[in-house]
Fold each of these.
Amino acid sequence: MSRPVPFVHPITVRYLEVDRQGVVFNMWYLAYLDDAMTAFLCEGGMPYGEMLAAGYDVQVVHTELDWHGPLGLGDPVGVRVAVAHVGRKSFTLRFRVESSARVAAEASTVYVAVRTDGSGTCELPPTLLGALGPPA
Amino acid sequence: MSRPVPFVHPITVRYLEVDRQGVVFNMWYLAYLDDAMTAFLCEGGMPYGEMLAAGYDVQVVHTELDWHGPLGLGDPVGVRVAVAHVGRKSFTLRFRVESSARVAAEASTVYVAVRTDGSGTCELPPTLLGALGPPA
Amino acid sequence: MSRPVPFVHPITVRYLEVDRQGVVFNMWYLAYLDDAMTAFLCEGGMPYGEMLAAGYDVQVVHTELDWHGPLGLGDPVGVRVAVAHVGRKSFTLRFRVESSARVAAEASTVYVAVRTDGSGTCELPPTLLGALGPPA
Amino acid sequence: MSRPVPFVHPITVRYLEVDRQGVVFNMWYLAYLDDAMTAFLCEGGMPYGEMLAAGYDVQVVHTELDWHGPLGLGDPVGVRVAVAHVGRKSFTLRFRVESSARVAAEASTVYVAVRTDGSGTCELPPTLLGALGPPA
């Protein structure tokens, strides 16, 4: 796997994501995490389109976020991603949203694998396990 | 058809829709128009789910917007909808985004009917024509 | 305080909030919680505009969400809000996103009070304490 | 000015921007145009932060969009930007949203310059004129 360690996904803050307080509204952090998760799996060898084509998808079942400081327009932002846990039917990613050397937010998200035919959750397929790699 | 004339769809401005300038960011007006279009057709007797179930959908092919003034948090907002044109395969709605007696924006959008089986555009079905009613 | 107990804030799912999987994308739940928090305080006697005019605001510092099931277009949605904890400089709200009798998601969010002059966090002002009411 | 001609701003479609029909929802095109406009001015020598620091900002007063085809997840997207008109207090940009060799949408937007002190519209300042360059 050619994915760099640590893996940091760059984000460009959009003008529209910044609210009246002059900072990125909390909701958009979940967009950033989703972008980062997708990039993390892709760089691990599992592009999202291939996962769907193979008949499964991932769904978020739990997430927790801690905000330590604001993000503003023009701030350089990166989302650091690491594997916290890999189970039989779920996995957990840990995120750190950074701006320069500062940690703006930390998050942890639990995903389950589901079949795209609507039959519900399933065991993590080998290709997904490969793209995740071992927990950090 | 029990839809009132004029038809005005109420909108509540979300905190996150307001940008650093303290006004609703331009993108969200397209969300307001979509909300208003859906409500307009529903009140005309064509709920969106029934339209899909009947095998067709609508797609935006053209829209133009003029902004005359800002919308802020807490402003009472209504979107006035009227039918501007009904063709064989498309129709045009005219929108007026109002706050109290003030016009914040005007817009005009052209929609085409498409089949949900992917076969492309189609003639406006009778139920949709009924829900639109005659042009104002 | 005239706020009903339990307090349930109604949400209308927007077409654009529904993703390729046919369900509301996770990010929008934070919009729903923000809407519900604002309505909860307003119904408790503290409209958001008055809070700002009084020189303070609230900021999210922690949130956790558990998704139990999907929300789709046209689903009737309500967000139940209750006070879980009131501290000196922060308070915690508990949310339950419901569709009919089904719980789609549960969440818990910690807010701090900040002064709008940029001087940082402050003690919860009496009007905010009044609008929160006692923990459930 | 080192800005390439033609100027094309790359966009990565977000998962959440794709709707039930499997295509980018119309609203997000306005986000793409805003991203592209900001990048266009920045590459022309006028970063957004410097414009604000100099005491003025731009506001959209008119936009029109034509959709020719869909954008989906994973599609390579670029927004081509050109100056269509420069007036005394306003300017017009023309956009072409492209995916590979295909044109997904075309748009034209009129912006006015405003002072950040709330005193309203103003003549386009020399630095902004410089960043725009001559109409194509």
Amino acid sequence: MALQNSRVSKLFDIKYPVIQGGMVWCSGWRLASAVSNNGGLGLLGAGSMHPEVLSEHVTKMQQATDKPWGVNVPLLYPEIDRLMDIVVKKGVRIVFTSAGSPGKWTSFLKNQGITVAHVVSNSRFAKKCEEAGVDAVVAEGFEAGGHNGREETTTMTLIPLIKNSTSLPVIAAGGIATGSQFAAAMALGAEGVQIGSLFALSQESSAHEAFKSYCLKAVEGDTFLSLKQLAPVRLLRNKFFDLVREAEQRGASADEMRALLGKGRAKKGMFEGELDEGELEIGQVVALIDEIKPVARIFEELLADYAVAVSRL
Amino acid sequence: MALQNSRVSKLFDIKYPVIQGGMVWCSGWRLASAVSNNGGLGLLGAGSMHPEVLSEHVTKMQQATDKPWGVNVPLLYPEIDRLMDIVVKKGVRIVFTSAGSPGKWTSFLKNQGITVAHVVSNSRFAKKCEEAGVDAVVAEGFEAGGHNGREETTTMTLIPLIKNSTSLPVIAAGGIATGSQFAAAMALGAEGVQIGSLFALSQESSAHEAFKSYCLKAVEGDTFLSLKQLAPVRLLRNKFFDLVREAEQRGASADEMRALLGKGRAKKGMFEGELDEGELEIGQVVALIDEIKPVARIFEELLADYAVAVSRL
């Protein structure tokens, strides 16, 4: 089937069912508009934006593209009412929600005519999405960067499980940075993919250049799902990571882990480029990424490699 | 490409590039011959057999099929010299080695004209395989049951990494129990798949019926990579598993873990059906398996679903 005809392409009115993850500290209007202008769906990452900052990015986004785009809203956001108010008032048409239950905000958004996708890591939540009236689910596997599910289900296993649990279109996330991985996700039954790490390390990403360069050097086994006592998050090895591992291995309490984590670590690492003290969130696929590319080239290569992978079958 | 034309099919002279993992306590001559007679490659699991027992199974295997088949040999096997002697003397043509370095035994086996595949979980070992003269590598992801790599790399990420590191044919393992997962593995660049859990829970598997029935009830999040301080192994939740988790969470020492594990736990759980005290090894895909089927039906369904998955692309 042509990618243009997938339910995900049609739902969002996009050329390729390629969604850019709305990652914290990476996903401003430059990255999101570049993705949308290249035929995918760009998402502003509201999780790391104050409401006023999101408002500015929405305005810039509206100037930078006439293609569909959206906003990712983590439902644990402290000022979520203000954020949702901006989303509605400024005419955002697509919202991806994550890190919370789809029950609360879906009907509010749907009543405004907004298309809603929700990120899940198990089929129980996929069913909840369907009940709540969500339009599509993002199923995110263990290999994904950043916050992650407690079941540790990998994308390969998760997509068939989610497909068995819901009739909604499924967008696969976690482990997708090449055309062959994109094709594999579609073979599993996904109708689109959400790509994080590859776009986090693109030229247009707002992540700090020091973070991007550091990621290019990462190899297999350099990321681990960490901080499981608090909320599991996939981190790249650095000095802070070593402290976390050491504490985990000696069975530190949740309170100790919270104290060690402190506040603002992800900003420090990913946005301010403090590679020792910061929290560096990235997926396992970082080991496959060895160049910072512009979004246009990422799309070219992804689609060409996708075609090669499909032709192998 | 037709499955018959993959390099893995040609290497082993089999119809479908579907290898049955040589799992401990599951993989006697009944299972392995059924797989070979249905067009795949059956493997006797020598890891749980005394040398004399293996010898018997080889004889029965030779009577039960005229199709190609092999033996899986974990290289940590205590009496490995005797085992290899039997393999050679009884005319075994294919050996899969695992749990060790491919350096030592590959040339011995190759000198006897035996085809050799080796199981790896990272690209460093895939390169070693190529240097050692191995004919194909099995790349096993984090989601696989039983013993597993330390890097926790999932199949989705691992296959492209392994493909980048070697020109050998790659057999994907971990996360494969349906035709869509088979197709996904091939899209990733694998040229064959090794299937464990699905065959461990087949009618012909020598695992205890109580173990099989218990596995059918498993859902998402019921297996975890455990005993990481010793050798990481994916286990299914049961009473023993709970003790392991509790010990891990309080930061128990490696010695404590060794004492807790004791000896013969896998036999107890999987072969003797002691569901509380035994170690139950199975992959994440257990959540997708809800019926004990004969191998013939497993092949029918796998191939039909594979065709459906490919036609979606």
